Fold this protein.
Amino acid sequence: ETGVTQSPTHLIKTRGQQVTLRCSSQSGHNTVSWYQQALGQGPQFIFQYYREEENGRGNFPPRFSGLQFPNYSSELNVNALELDDSALYLCASSLPGQGTRGELFFGEGSRLTVL
Amino acid sequence: GDSVTQMEGPVTLSEEAFLTINCTYTATGYPSLFWYVQYPGEGLQLLLKATKADDKGSNKGFEATYRKETTSFHLEKGSVQVSDSAVYFCALSDKQGAQKLVFGQGTRLTINP
């Protein structure tokens, strides 16, 4: 039990629509990252938030945006959905310390299908 | 940019067999290296890690050694069990900036009784 919860678990959208995915971090973790995992692939880094500010971004267009709230929960928003956005979206929380760098606690993910 | 390459799957073994899953990486600095595991119906979990050259990470009977000279971090287990069936991901993290993990494509492992 990692303590990271994501919602919804599954959803279906059509091309051009917008989607919001939500994540509750593990207690005490003030850093949250989002990853996209296409079928049969490894997760790809979208961005990371620390203390409500984005502090790192992968190779994703601006229509992927996020928020982190004072209670460390987080949202991932994707606008103008495209078919290639169909994937499992993973949220991961972590502590910022050097000794725990890279030790992420993942949720089970939100599976998005774009038709 | 940084990248991780894993051996192609799927891998199917019999219980008590010896397991090796190969992983090599490309990185500009001296990254930390990880193996994550994804059991059916569960989220990714950290299996083991190594933060510098020649470090050996170990957990649940699995081991991997950080080999800087061959840029490798191969996962091994001496005797696998049915419960080890999962997808295994090798990953690296640089030591600057955001805590970004770069993952390999994953290797699906199935252990038959």
Observations:
- The CA atoms of residues 15 and 82 of chain A lie 5 Å apart.
- Chain A has a mean pLDDT of 91.
